[in-house]
Design a protein that fits this description.
- It is a single chain.
- The protein has about 230 residues and is of the alpha/beta class.
- It is built from eight helices and twelve strands.
- Helix 1 crosses helix 5, helix 3 runs parallel beside helix 4 and helix 6 crosses helix 7.
- The protein starts with 6 loop residues before the first strand and ends with a strand.
């Protein structure tokens, strides 16, 4: 997701803080909205559907804790990342914030550059969520559930040993692409000690027996590829 597509809502009753923080986030390329109290923050959250909401705790009309609870119970905002801005002396608010459904908190005062770094770290969770959407992949008649380490081949469920699963997952990630042996070793075995140069061959043989010989092609002297 590009920065310009990421919506951030800042909620704080101090105009100077809103101005400084929103300026620095906008300079990074994010789309930024602001609100000066909890009630306004809830209204804007419902309207703008932000990816990240940064809430001050102590605010007039409605504090951040109450606003967080309402946002968390609003359809469409259940998975929105919420973090609190808390003063160093407000330890109690951190606990209350988590109880209300917050994901994290940022302690103020905070330097703008550090604040932006914190925001970037929070937004990495968006990538994790996007990646999870790819946990279930269909390749031909094979369904690969990367989260549960399960395979369904022609309607039949298979539970593969971990390395066989990871090897299959790698090869099917790009059907017809030839994966060199050294790439396979790096991606599947990494820094683990591999016993013998036939390790990949043995795992390919087992996959052929379970998935079907026609799907796995040997490119002599190079590596292997998965074909549909």
């Amino acid at each position: 997701m590009k920065k310009k597509d990421i919506r951030i809502l800042l909620v704080d009753d101090e105009p100077d803080i809103l101005e400084i923080l929103s300026y620095n986030l906008s300079a990074e390329g994010y789309e930024v909205f602001t609100a000066k109290n909890g009630a306004e923050g809830v209204a804007k959250a419902k309207k703008k559907q932000p990816h990240l909401i940064i809430l001050d705790v102590m605010m007039p009309e409605m504090d951040g804790i109450e606003a967080c609870e309402i946002i968390r119970n609003t359809p469409g905002l259940e998975e929105t990342i919420i973090t609190f801005l808390t003063a160093r002396s407000e330890d109690y608010s951190q606990v209350a914030g988590f109880d209300a459904g917050a994901d994290d908190y940022i302690t103020k005062p905070i330097k703008p550059k550090v604040f932006v770094s914190k925001v970037k770290a929070l937004l990495r969770r968006l990538k994790d969520e996007e990646a999870s959407a790819d946990d279930i992949v269909k390749v031909g008649n094979i369904i690969i559930n990367r989260e549960e380490y399960k395979i369904v081949n022609d309607g039949q469920e298979l539970v593969l040993p971990r390395k066989e699963f990871e090897l299959l997952s790698l090869l099917t990630s790009k059907p017809n692409k030839v994966f060199k042996r050294e790439v396979i070793l790096d991606k599947v075995w990494g820094n683990e000690v591999v016993v013998g140069g036939r390790t990949i061959d043995v795992h390919i043989r087992k996959l052929r027996e379970k998935i079907g010989d026609d799907h796995f092609k040997t490119v002599k002297g190079v590596g292997y590829k998965f074909v549909l």
